[in-house]
Amino acid sequence: MLSYPRFDLTDSSYAVMLMADQTPAWREVYTRILDELATRHTAYWAAIDWNTFIGPSPNRGKLLDYPDLSPGSQAWPERVHGNYDRPGWTANGVEPWGLQPDPIGADGNLFFRGWLNLLLSIYKYVSGDDKWGATMDDCRLREPAVRMDPAQNC
After folding, report:
1. Enclosing domain of residue 137
2. Using omega within 30 degrees of 0 as the cis cutoff, is the peptide bond preceding 67 cis?
3. pLDDT tens-place values along the chain, 154 residues long
4. Peptide bond connecting 103 to the previous residue in cis, omega within 30 degrees of 0
5. 85 and 107 fall within a common domain
């Protein structure tokens, strides 16, 4: 679950933030790196799971038959056996929210918004620039991308 491209982006930002604190003369370079990381986090591929894992998991109800799909699922409470998507399956389109093409503004995808907000906070901490506080294109399921205001999605 932690192998999606967005985790590389966010996790890389931690080291950049620490380096910026240790070598402030390089803040301009670190700002550029963080800007590129944030740009990639708003691209389609950062939300590839939300954009492609539509509906219930095709392996729903088969987790005990295929333990490699969900290590540790044997220890889950009996009430969820056969009634649970495999870990990592984002299930865009299921109730109660339905299909939400914007992964940043989606009610059922809070973790994506949280990782993006963390990355943008690190960018502002290092750069002092509020560039990412303005509107930006979202990384939606279908084209065309639309302009969005991050302040509405925090």
Report:
1. 5-53+102-153
2. no
3. 455 667 888 999 999 999 999 999 999 999 999 999 999 988 888 888 898 999 998 888 777 677 676 777 778 788 877 788 877 889 999 999 999 988 888 898 888 889 999 999 999 999 999 888 876 665 665 554 555 555 554 4
4. no
5. no
Task: Determine the Cα–Cα distance for residues 81 and 64; give it in Å rounded to an integer.
Answer: 8
Residue 96 in any domain: the answer is no
Rounded CA-CA distance 87/70 in Å is: 6
Structure tokens at 104: 């940043």
Number of domains observed in the structure of the chain: 2
Q: Are residues 46 and 117 both part of a single domain?
A: yes
User: What are 136's strand-pairing partners?
Assistant: 148
Please name the residue ranges forming H helices in the chain. Answer: 5-22, 27-41, 48-52, 110-127
pTM equals 0.78
What six digits make up the tokens of 150? 């991050």
The reply to whether 97 falls in a domain is: no
What CA–CA distance (Å, rounded) separates 117 from 114? 5
CA distances from 121 to 29, 134, 145 (A): 17, 13, 23
